[in-house]
Structure prediction request, 227 residues.
Amino acid sequence: MKSTLFWFASTWRAWRTFLRREKDAKELDWSKRVNVAKGVAHALSYLHHKCVPPIIHQDISSKNVLLNSEMEAHVPDFGTARFLKPDSSNWTAVAGTFGYIALELSYTMAVTEKCNVYSFGVMTLEILMGSHRGELSSNLYSSVDNERVQLADVLDPRLPPPTSQKLRDELDSILNLAVWCLRADPHSRPTMYDASQVLEMNARAGRESPELVKSVREGVDVLPMLS
Prediction:
């Protein structure tokens, strides 16, 4: 699976455009949506953990994730991106798309990789729902914030329910990851490396791996588990 970062073809389409029309939304079945989540996670993990200094995108949203003709996810538009400097406060003016911006930016004005993690959580929930998190009912919105949301409550009704146990487990894992990324305290969110490993491990195992999630949350290096 590819996740190109720096260029795109004019024929590629933003993820947001697939949400607006029922025909287009149905074109993105559950398996393709799982791959979109993985592609974005891998791209952000690369920016945060392979680039020196790390790069913070600052505008991860449905308009800034493009899908090619094979429905592979690509992350373009680095107009608001910035390098993360370890010896700096990294203060910045608030940048990004409303509804995807991490809560802490409103009062700290300090950009960190966890701001991208929050935006990824919003978009990942959107991948499941087929709509933005802001369109949730008040009760369901509260359930997400309190980490009590159920998979059946958030699946896009324009698609038939997943039929295989493997696919249901993958979607449930993506939901759990999204909720984890949306935690109000940025220090309790995963890194994008963590998120990428969780998605990769679940894909290889063919089921959600509670041991993997537990290990990642406890700071254990799970890379050997992927080999």
Observations:
- Residues 1-6 have pLDDT under 50 and may be disordered.
